[in-house]
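Thread: "does anyone have the structure for this chain?"

Original post by V.I.:
We have the sequence but no experimental structure in hand. Need at least a predicted one for the grant figures.
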Amino acid sequence: MNAVRMTGLVVGALLAAAAAGAGEVTIAGNVLGPEGPLFIDGNLYYVGWASDTLSKWDGKSTTVLNHTPGCGHNGLALTKQKTLLLACTNDPGAILELDMNGRQLQRWDTDNNGRKFDGGINDIVVAGNGGAYATTFGTFAKLATPPAGVTGRILYRAPGGQSWVGVADNLNYANGVGVSPDQKTLYVSETVGNCILKFTINDDGTLSDRSNFVLLNQLAPNAVNSSWLGPDSMKIDGQGNMYVAQFIGGRILKISPAGKLLHIFRIAAGSGTTNVAFGPGGKDLYVSAVGDPNDPQFRGSIVKIPNVD
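Reply from O.Q.:
Generated one for you, tokens below.
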């Protein structure tokens, strides 16, 4: 969660949990800034934004695959070529392409017009055609209340393309990003405003028909009163259901394609939930969570919880 990390926001009452939730199992502990979980071929990949690392858990042990100082590792996506796209969230941001062993293959520091990724790259998703979308948070002032600078963007890299092109701008701190199973709709989290936007994906990958999908406080009462409540990152399953991590909220919201709240997963590991990934068959969820968002090292963990139908 880039904004909270950089602003050092002091949150009042946090959603607390005295004991682990039913079926919640810790997979990796003491992760500094946990984010970006992906379950691929029996391995769990995840990042630490405060440690600038990408790690892999093989079910028995954890291996650090990449350490790029100053990156602020965040969102992670698997390409059709079985490489990883990694979001560097430290302002002004970058996008790295890595092989599955964490070796850097490419790096982008600007878009096709030479514009830097102001505010840092937050999240990335790969579409069914192999194209990819990435979000930039946009610039912001420390401790701004209310937050200022509505300058978040969405970038697109066409299949086989070598550059990233801006396809939407003026987002209120763009964060998580996902594509519907039919590949016709792009969803994007606006952290400030507690909103999920949706766009029509055109044949050339550009976006149109921007509209509100859901306002999260209309689905579930806010856990705390904060401009930085969330949503954070998201994932979308094969049925089009959306799983949204709500930073500071200590929970994952499962939302139907029609925008209806289906379930609230309450995460005992910490109040700073950042992202979610699907295990085999979608039966389990892997959730990244910071224990206390006020911790300057953002210590947290990756936990596994059972999914619900």
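V.I.: this helps a lot. The first strand starts at residue 25 and ends at 32.
O.Q.: and The chain has one domain: 2-306.
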